[in-house]
């Protein structure tokens, strides 16, 4: 049997990528009876029934599942920002971080367009997030600098890129893998995907090994879906203080004897991060009032 990863699903066909080819597979009947929904990203074993055809016999256990879009086994989210144009700021980064934290995936912060930026300002911003424990990569896709560490992080893993429009996600991917756009084009032509066909997420293989989720209009869940007590867990640096708050239900807002607020005052938690927390907490509460 051959082992591979489903890179695309179309009608009842699954395109399974092995080391050197893609096979168009159907699913063994017994899986259909179990109503098991196979997803892009699932690892499977199949028997070849032709040169590029097969039948899926085994589905390996899932490591993770991203809900929007539905993709199995995504390992990490690469949050991509532009240093300049659109300008990066902590409020923006924190919003994306909250959504990324809710997805439960590993997070890498990638700051692109460093060719346009003031290095000192950038280092300060990068430092803020590095101290919390997030890996921060500085790069310029246009000048082809700083791409190697990103390439290494993508190696052998399934990654999804997210970030504001114009941050340079497509440019980065093209710089990393010049053939990528072309490959997608070819695959679409094969199955005759027209303009009006619904687009599902698919995986784009990287020549170095690993995949990138291709997701037009990729969206995390909305903030409004988040319960207030869940929000604080999206700020990993709060954790080591939160246990010392007087109230176990402390939301670190107006409660007395709050260890998180005290840590902010003492400079152990960055005030900007705490501001972001309060801003989103307020939004969540406002949204709930409407119901
Ligand atoms: N100066 C500079 N410009 C860049 C760099 N990377 C990308 N750009 C430019 O930024 C603009 C936006 O880049 P895209 O790659 O389209 O951004 P995107 O994140 O894919 O945007 P969406 O598709 O809207 O999500 C383009 O005009 C790029 O040429 C960089 O490293 N330096
Ligand atoms: Zn508290």
Explain what the structure shows.
With 291 residues, the protein is α/β, with parallel strands linked by helices. It has three domains: 2-62, Beta Barrel (OB fold (Dihydrolipoamide Acetyltransferase, E2P)); 66-214, Rossmann fold; 224-289, Probable gtpase engc, domain 3 (Ribonucleotide Reductase Protein R1, domain 1, Orthogonal Bundle). It is 33% helix and 24% strand. It has a six-stranded mixed sheet, with helices on both faces. It has a five-stranded mixed beta barrel with strand order 1-2-3-5-4. A hairpin with a 4-residue loop joins strand 2 (13-17) and strand 3 (22-27). The radius of gyration is 22 Å and the shape is globular. The relative contact order is 0.13. Bound molecules: guanosine-5'-triphosphate and zinc ion (ZN). Guanosine-5'-triphosphate binds next to helix 5. Keywords: Cytoplasm, GTP-binding, Hydrolase, Metal-binding, Nucleotide-binding, Ribosome biogenesis, RNA-binding, rRNA-binding, Zinc. Residues 72-219 form the EngC GTPase domain. Its cofactor is Zn(2+). Residues 63-221 form the CP-type G domain. Monomer. Associates with 30S ribosomal subunit, binds 16S rRNA.
């Amino acid at each position: 049997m051959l082992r591979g990863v489903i890179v695309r699903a179309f009608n009842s066909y699954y395109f399974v990528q092995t080391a050197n080819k893609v096979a168009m597979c159907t699913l063994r009947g017994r899986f259909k009876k179990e109503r098991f929904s196979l997803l892009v990203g699932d690892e499977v074993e199949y028997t070849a029934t032709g040169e590029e055809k097969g039948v899926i016999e085994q589905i390996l256990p899932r490591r993770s599942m991203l809900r929007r879009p539905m993709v199995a086994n995504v390992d990490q989210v690469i949050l991509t920002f532009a240093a300049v144009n659109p300008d990066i700021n902590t409020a923006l980064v924190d919003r994306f971080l909250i959504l990324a934290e809710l997805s439960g995936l590993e997070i890498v912060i990638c700051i692109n367009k460093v060719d346009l930026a003031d290095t000192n300002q950038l280092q300060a911003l990068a430092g803020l997030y590095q101290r919390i424990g997030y890996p921060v990569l500085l790069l310029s896709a246009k000048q082809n600098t700083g791409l190697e560490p990103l390439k290494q992080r993508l190696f052998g893993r399934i990654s999804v890129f997210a970030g504001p429009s114009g941050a340079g996600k497509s440019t980065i991917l093209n710089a990393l893998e010049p053939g990528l756009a072309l490959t997608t084009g070819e695959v679409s032509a094969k199955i005759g995907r027209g303009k009006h066909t619904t687009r599902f997420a698919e995986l784009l293989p990287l020549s170095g090994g690993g995949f990138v989720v291709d997701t037009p209009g990729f969206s995390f869940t909305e903030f409004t879906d988040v319960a207030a007590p869940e929000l604080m867990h999206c700020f990993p640096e709060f954790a080591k203080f939160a246990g010392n708050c007087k109230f176990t239900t402390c939301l670190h807002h107006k409660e007395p004897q709050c260890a998180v607020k005290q840590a902010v005052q003492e400079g152990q938690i960055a005030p900007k991060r705490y501001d972001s927390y309060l801003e989103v907490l307020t939004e969540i509460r406002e949204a709930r009032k409407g119901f």
